């Protein structure tokens, strides 16, 4: 199904909602330097892009086109992640030096805060529902929870469930030794689902996604595993090996469906996986909690670099992008391909739907192109 016709089957197009490419725009500065757009996020009618340059660009959508409308400048390094809060105003930027800078799009000339993070814990970030907290993760495999009202670290949760205070975290940043043995003393014991080792659970975090209902957080790991955390108690539900390869298949992309039930992932094995995360979390205890319901299907010829589920409950679709330069639209209920787009000329790194209604989505990649796809009217 993943290698179907360029525009999907006619029956699929007739029975599913679809989006069509309406505009493409190049970041000419990046294009001239041979640099990529690494990351993209949507906030209302604004689209934000990050790259290896020390600036996040703000693009505005008007009359079906995108035009650069502003820049968020801070520091001297690029960004690995750009995220927008649900209120459409607050933006978090994970910089390559490990800092997390906060901006308000209503006053883009000045940043409104900076979180004292580090590279091992701030490669990726996600706003939690309500917009008052942010979670970040990176090469350490741990999660950091940030209080955005105070702009400070609230807690750190290790992959084995051990917690650390903000003072522990600051000591780590200063190079002082923390009790790593306490967190890793059970390296050889079975994992929470009994299927892979503790070392897998502590592997680097490549992707994060929070469910819309605020109950669950998904973590995609370098090992190909997916970890699910219960946000209310900040306790791990479990881990499952979702993506497989001869060596490893990092989970580069995660997205919850609108109903906060399914967690969709994309990895270097060219597949998309769907985990019934909500059903898994509802199981009464760790002792009775088995493997979650998991389905896999081939999606691309290269790495799956992003997975974005449409926020409109009437449109059960997901966009995937890949290192094969493809963009695909899927019905995740039936795992059927709706449409395949070939507008990029190089690896597509990122995608994002318009919040709330999903009336458009954008893609960005190594060709420094930003693509705009608008939903067709029924």
UniProtKB/TrEMBL annotation:
Basic and acidic residues bias (residue ranges): 187-201
WD repeat spans: 297-340
Superkingdom to which the source organism belongs: Eukaryota
UniProt keyword Cell division present: no
Protein name: Guanine nucleotide-binding protein subunit beta-like protein
Region (Disordered): 180-204
SUPFAM superfamilies for the chain: WD40 repeat-like (SSF50978)
UniProt keyword annotation of Cell inner membrane present: no
PANTHER family with a match to the protein in the record: POC1 CENTRIOLAR PROTEIN HOMOLOG (PTHR44019:SF8), WD REPEAT-CONTAINING PROTEIN 55 (PTHR44019)
Keywords noted in UniProt: Repeat, WD repeat
